[in-house]
Design a protein that fits this description.
The structure is a homodimer of 420-residue chains. In chain A, strand 10 and strand 11 form a beta hairpin. Chain A contains 15 helices and 17 strands. By secondary structure, the first copy, chain A, is an alpha/beta fold. In chain A, helix 2 runs parallel beside helix 7 and helix 10 packs parallel to helix 15. Chains A and B meet through helix 1, helix 2, strand 2, helix 3 and helix 6 of A and helix 1, helix 2, strand 2, helix 3 and strand 9 of B. Strand 14 of chain A pairs antiparallel with strand 14 of chain B, so a sheet runs across the interface. Chains A, B: It comes from Candidatus Hakubella thermalkaliphila. Chains A, B: InterPro entries: CinA (IPR050101), CinA-like_C (IPR036653), CinA_C (IPR008136), CinA_KH (IPR041424), Competence-induced_CinA (IPR008135), MoaB/Mog-like_dom_sf (IPR036425), MoaB/Mog_dom (IPR001453). Chains A, B: It holds the Pfam family CinA_KH.
């Protein structure tokens, strides 16, 4: 089974929207052993949709189409399919009554528009929707045409629930599965990682290795191809072990294990509570920590102290420290962490003060200079570091370091390095 | 001039990398009046590259290719072009000496690999690189083929410096420019907006209108085509005015005017200071506010009170309120806002308390229930609202509402609605 992906939407051609649907579908196909060699994007334009369909069908057994199924004027996907395959658009009573029920009481003019979604291609089957726009499955000779909405949440729901099971059950062609695993690293640069594991990279054919540098972290992607899921996982496990022998604790997690989740899980497991005092990160640290479900188990809160006044009044930072060392200093970072720990009565508190830019830098204290603090019952420590990039980049990198500082503390590593 | 975009890279087919290059190139083409109706993505596979080239060339005057120009084994773009156009790969002495100089002293085995980059297609011209891989320009009959590296920074550099000037100077066909403007709306649903401006949408040919629903906001995209930038802006201005007559203050900004920037600018202009108390949003409000450069002009800080203890101790929320009404209640939202305003001594404070989920909901207080509070010298008010979606969705939507609450307050609108 070989499946191409056709994204429809003028937005995509104007560059105002990134085609995240294509990469999501591609990833899920690969994980399920379904080959995918082609992606095409065209606008909401019947002629171009026809040309793209022709090209996709000539190159693959199935086409997954996303976008243009909604109820606005420029949603022309169904009409383009209708003329391409010479199939009428017919009213589906079941969808109609479903819509009637859901939009009972809505303005009738609005409803007339929504009702467009109740029309389907003659001979097609419906994919049950999460939102209002249903998906469609069409068989044309030995080709399979699948239409999904462009709204990412609705598309993903249908992919997981209906499309992947269908494609897998068809099982035409290669039965190989391709599985990737991502090893995630904070605190080491890409060349440093490459040097450390160069020989492993060179020796590997399956899984293959690739280095993906990101904001404040580097990921090593391992991609294995095998007959089955288990065999692929085993191949991945063997190489992961080799890499871990080199990089050890520098690897903070794999795949979806974000730093905020890893740190949260460590705190929960040890029954430790956490709080924070943020200056230049402006709440981003707390926001990341609390984006994890169940974070109230360990997180008690934070103070975003964006003025000297609030550093003194709420966190108890000494005026003399602010005067002598300035708000961006190791001394103030430590006082902030101590203050947050007292205020929220937690086991651990972290802090961050720095210059996020783009203005406010001096020769002595340039944009990107950041001090991190950590306070526990046995320790009060700070680290100095320097980041580059935009304001948002610097803020994000600083929160990566705050999370990694907590992690290293919990692992019992030596803290206070980096030019402190 | 009509230009298609061909992205080459097996990564893209595995879904492990998003095709940000295509959306960047598409956006820059549109801004420069160059039509672009087609994007194709294939892997590092000569046969598929040939098929894609054929399709792109049959649909457009020019093709911009990205990816596969590097020095690793799987970079096959040049070799595929060589066989497709029957042109030899020849060593370019200038690139070679440039590489020799740059990589003097490097391991010879590594250098042999890098040297692959010094080979170019017979008869092609070089685009000067920022990194090591040069771009190529090839003219084949009346078609233009442009090859760029896949590394985003290098690709963007060549697009701006060489490719766009070349395409614009060619000026084949249309000299039109295409400019989009986005009107951004919080607090109205997509069908409600469509109903309100239906007749304008229908009457419009240039600019065209499209509705883009996003998380906690809807954008109306206006896209104008005209001979010059000024004329296009004028067309956009006329329709924007018509829409504003219908939607008025519901439009909070255009284009890059994020709510956090709009609210910040309003505060700065009026010399008002701002603070916050966050519970279920966990710092995301503060993080958004402080992501704007210069936000320390008006933002003093916030308290993320993630426990009842901290609500009482730091913000002064009455214990009896927490007992009688619960932490998620209008009474507590108001106390939190009042507490933040006192603590940070600001003109305005906002607050938020709710159930972000996925757990913790009850029949009476379901996941997604959120109370917002606002306190000023003359007002203490709250609003009740309900969101749907994931934990992160609910948190983000709540911060959209907090920002919009401040905006509506500053505009002198009636507050406290929505089932309060």
């Amino acid at each position: 089974m070989n499946c191409s992906i056709l994204a429809i939407g003028t937005e995509l051609l104007l560059g105002s929207l990134e085609n995240t649907n294509a990469s999501f579908i591609a990833g899920r196909l690969a994980e399920n052993g379904i080959d995918s060699f082609l992606q095409v994007t065209v606008g909401d334009n019947e002629k171009m949709i026809h040309r793209a369909l022709e090209f996709c069908l000539s190159s693959s057994d199935a086409v997954i189409i996303t976008g243009g199924l909604g109820s606005t004027e420029d949603d022309v996907t169904k009409s383009a399919l209708s003329s391409f395959f010479h199939r009428e658009l017919v009213l589906d009573r079941e969808i109609e009554s479903h819509l009637e029920e859901r939009f009972a009481g809505i303005d009738r003019t609005v409803y007339q528009r929504i009702k467009k979604q109740a029309y389907i291609l003659e001979g097609s089957r419906i994919i049950q929707p999460m939102g209002t726009a249903p998906g469609l499955i069409l068989e044309e000779g030995d080709k399979l045409i699948i239409c999904l909405p462009g709204v990412p949440g609705e598309m993903r729901f249908m992919m997981e629930k209906s499309v992947l099971p269908l494609l897998v059950s068809r099982g035409k062609g290669s039965q190989d599965v391709i599985i990737s695993r991502f090893l995630r690293i904070v605190g080491l640069s890409e060349p440093a990682i490459e040097t450390a594991i160069m020989d492993i990279v060179k020796a590997q054919q399956n899984p293959t290795l690739a280095m993906l540098p990101g904001l404040g972290e580097v990921q090593i992607r391992l991609t294995a191809r095998a007959r089955g899921r288990e065999e692929a996982q085993e191949l991945l496990g063997t190489v992961e072990k080799q890499i871990r022998e080199r990089l050890g604790n520098k690897i903070f997690g794999i795949d979806e294990e974000d730093p905020e989740k890893v740190v949260g899980d460590m705190c929960r497991k040890r029954g430790l509570s956490l709080s924070a005092a943020e200056s230049c990160t402006g709440g981003l640290f707390s926001s990341r920590i609390t984006s994890v479900p169940g974070s109230s188990d360990y997180f008690r809160g934070s103070v975003v102290s964006y003025s000297n006044e609030s550093k003194k009044k709420i966190l108890g930072v000494r005026s003399s420290f602010l005067r002598s060392f300035g708000a961006v200093s190791k001394e103030v970072a430590e006082e902030m962490a101590k203050g947050a720990r007292n205020l929220f009565a937690t086991d651990i508190a972290v802090s961050c003060t720095g210059i996020a830019g783009p203005k406010g830098g001096t020769e002595e204290k340039p944009v990107g200079l950041v001090f991190l603090g950590l306070c526990s019952d046995s320790m009060l420590v700070s680290e100095r570091t320097r980041y580059y990039g935009s304001r948002k980049d610097i803020q994000y990198r600083a929160t990566q370091s705050m999370l990694d500082l907590i992690r290293r503390f919990l692992l019992g590593e030596q803290l206070g390095g980096r030019g402190n």
